[in-house]
Amino acid sequence: MVKIGQVELGEFPLLLAPMEDVSDPPFRALCKEQGCDMMYTEFISVEGLIRDATKSVQKLDIYDEERPIGIQIFGANLDSMERAAEIVEAAKPEVLDINYGCPVKKVVCKGAGAGILRDIDKMVKLTDAIVKRTSLPVTVKTRLGWDDNSLYIEEVAERLQDIGIKALSIHGRTRKQMYKGEADWTLIGKIKENPRIHIPIFGNGDIDSPQKAELYRERYGVDGIMIGRASIGYPWIFREIKHYFNTGEILEPPTIHERVSAAKRHLQHSVEWKGERLGILEMRRHYTNYFRGFRDIKHYRMKLVNSLILEELFEVLDMVETHYGVEETC
Q1: Which residues are known catalytic residues?
Q2: Residue 21 carries which DSSP code?
Q3: What's the CA gap between 225 and 145, in Å, rounded?
Q4: pLDDT tens per residue across all 330 residues of the chain
Q5: Distance between CA atoms of 46 and 23, rounded to whole angstroms?
Q6: CA 173, 176, 180, 182: dihedral to nearest 10 degrees?
Q7: Cα separation values, 282 from 22, 33, 268, 271, Å
Q8: Given the DSSP bridges, would you call strands 95-100 and 69-74 parallel, antiparallel or unpaired?
Q9: What SS3 state is found at 50?
């Protein structure tokens, strides 16, 4: 049984990675239904939290059906991190997660996210302060290092474990790589082989099929897998991986009815949670994956990404189901 503190996650949990403008409550609900064992919020700026910024505070919204869930924060200022930890604890998630892996320039230039990979001592100091300030289990998500000349993740894993974090998620790329090239899980596997390491180690990066999930589980010995981009517009990735683990068989892909139904619910909940305009805009990144591989789908996808009228979008989705539903039955 894999546990983060006292939070039980099953024998080999599948986790939803925290993704900006993706891992919101409407999307998390779909992933939970499809078998995701542990989810995280979008990452939240500690500076936004302590200043009561609307967008940051809204990201604290969590619902009982999503549990267990972690709230993820990022920042570089010790006082701000400590004050934000208290705000997070009041929101009552199961876990507080710290982001030391976001490679985006606007985050890194402030010394936050992956920016802190250039100062491991500061990373440890900040984490130690958070562990001492909150009663929540503290976890960390990070990368292998800043670049190929600073692959300090083995040291980082030991030092963070020693100050009390309860789990570590590692993306198998450096900050310099961003999301390019192939994720390298070799060092993740070495950490799992380290006899000093006893906290759960979760691998992240490039898991986009059940077969790859099984291969990496066996090859690198991780305690669970965190899935990010492969889940965007395709929450079924979780059920497909679990089915393959249990049976060794590839599950049939979702039907057009399942895809359209999920897209409609996602869209409706997105609008309810964010407001009509923003909810519609932020759904656009999901449509490609909801209907990936369908012949001549571009015509419908262009309608979905160009309309700002909710009723029109539902009409287009009905057209998609009608059109491709006929093909499925032929």
Answers
A1: 102
A2: T
A3: 19
A4: 999 999 999 999 999 999 998 999 999 999 999 999 999 999 999 999 999 999 999 999 999 999 999 999 999 999 999 999 999 999 999 999 999 999 999 999 999 999 999 999 999 999 999 999 999 999 999 999 999 999 999 999 999 999 999 999 999 999 999 999 999 999 999 999 999 999 999 999 999 999 999 999 999 999 999 999 999 999 999 999 999 999 999 999 999 999 999 999 999 999 999 999 999 999 998 998 999 989 999 999 999 999 999 999 999 999 999 999 866 554
A5: 18
A6: -30
A7: 8, 21, 12, 9
A8: parallel
A9: helix
The C-alpha atoms of residue 203 and residue 269 are separated, in whole angstroms, by 30
Side chain identity, residue 167? A
For every residue of 157-211, DSSP letters joined together read HHHHHHTT-SEEEEESS-TTTTT-S----HHHHHHHH-TT--S-EEEES---SHH
Secondary structure (DSSP) of 87-111: HHHHH--SEEEEEE----HHHHTTT
Q: Is the backbone peptide bond immediately before 25 cis, with ω within 30 degrees of 0?
A: no
Q: Which residue has the tokens 């500061």?
A: 122
Domains recognised in the chain with CATH numbers: 3-247 (3.20.20.70), 256-329 (1.10.1200)
Quick check: pTM over 0.70?
yes
| Paired tokens of 198 | 């006893």
Contacts of 249 (CB under 8 A, 6+ apart): 243
- 206: burial class by Cβ within 10 Å (0-12, 13-18, 19+)? buried
The CA distance from 228 to 171, in Å, is 10
